[in-house]
Amino acid sequence: MVRFSQTLDDRQARNREKPNEQLRENPYYAPREERQPRVAQMRDDRLYSQPPKPVYQEPAYQRQDNFYRQPQRQEVDEIIYERPVIERESIKPDISKPELKFPADQNIQFGVEYSPNSKPPVIGKNYTIRSNSIIYNDVVIGDNFRTGHNVVIRENTNIGDDVLIGTNTVIEGDVIIGNDVSIQSNVYIPTNSVIEDNVFIGPCACFTNDKYPVRINYELQGPKIRRGASIGGNTTFLSNVEIGEGSIVAAGAIVIHSVPPFYLAIGTPARIKPLPDHLKVPNKF
């Protein structure tokens, strides 16, 4: 509990009512310019019970001309430090340096703009796009579109109606996504991937499109997820695999071969088994 003895207004009013003569009668009061000799006198009379402040001595390494500080006093309350002149000049940008240029074969450019023929993204009715999501040009999205946070959808992507894209999901562009698709959080979908209607993709699923990364030239081919398939969480797919209609990929599976329609892929690497009859039903969102 906090208790207040008086308000701020009362204290200010009382201070204004005190005459200066009463303040000067106080033996411990003195103007600022007279305060130091009176304190010294009280020290001699042993009326000042607190130990004196230590005398500041300037270190040898600070005795340089490029340091700006207050003049040295016998008792220093505060030392103001400013950056050396050399350090302050180094912060200024050097305009004389030439602009960075990279070889053309490295494909590195600054300030790249969209091509003149590109068009802004087109989104249907009743959409919900949450914060920090980025949608590139040349993207077409249908009705009832929803995203989580930090979603990235790159150029040349076509998305149907009633699609959910979870938080932190990345769609790298040149991707086709059908209707009634639910993609959970932290999913990575590379270039040249196809996801058909009524597909569920669990969180942290990772699709790839390069069969021999950074080894040989290979045509990028993402996976093809056919109608009604269900993908479990933390699954990994090699490039150019096809997940058949109505099939299920169990959580944590690593799919290195295509899965036939209405089959189950489970394990690492994934083993292909027939899907039980009671699981041969469409996905229900």
CA gyration radius, whole angstroms: 37 Å
| Shape summary | globular
Give a count of the beta strands, DSSP E runs of length 2 or more: 22
The CATH architecture of the largest domain would be 3 Solenoid
CATH domain class of the largest domain:
Mainly Beta
Walk me through what this model shows.
- This protein is an alpha/beta fold.
- It has 2 domains: 8-62, no CATH class; 121-279, 3 Solenoid (UDP N-Acetylglucosamine Acyltransferase, domain 1).
- The chain has helices at 8-17, 20-25, 35-44, 85-91, and strands at residues 122-123, 134-135, 139-141, 146-147, 152-153, 157-159, 163-165, 170-171, 176-177, 181-183, 188-189, 194-195, 200-201, 206-207, 224-225, 230-231, 236-237, 242-243, 248-249, 254-255, 263-266, 271-274.
- The radius of gyration is 37 Å and the shape is globular.
- Helix content is 12%, strand content 18%.
- Residues 1-8 and 38-45 have low confidence and may be disordered.
Topology (SSEs and partners):
Layout: H1 8-17, H2 20-25, H3 35-44, H4 85-91, E1 122-123, E2 134-135, E3 139-141, E4 146-147, E5 152-153, E6 157-159, E7 163-165, E8 170-171, E9 176-177, E10 181-183, E11 188-189, E12 194-195, E13 200-201, E14 206-207, E15 224-225, E16 230-231, E17 236-237, E18 242-243, E19 248-249, E20 254-255, E21 263-266, E22 271-274
Parallel strand pairs: 1-3, 2-5, 3-6, 4-7, 5-8, 6-9, 7-10, 8-11, 9-12, 10-13, 12-15, 13-16, 14-17, 15-18, 16-19, 17-20, 19-21
Antiparallel strand pairs: 21-22
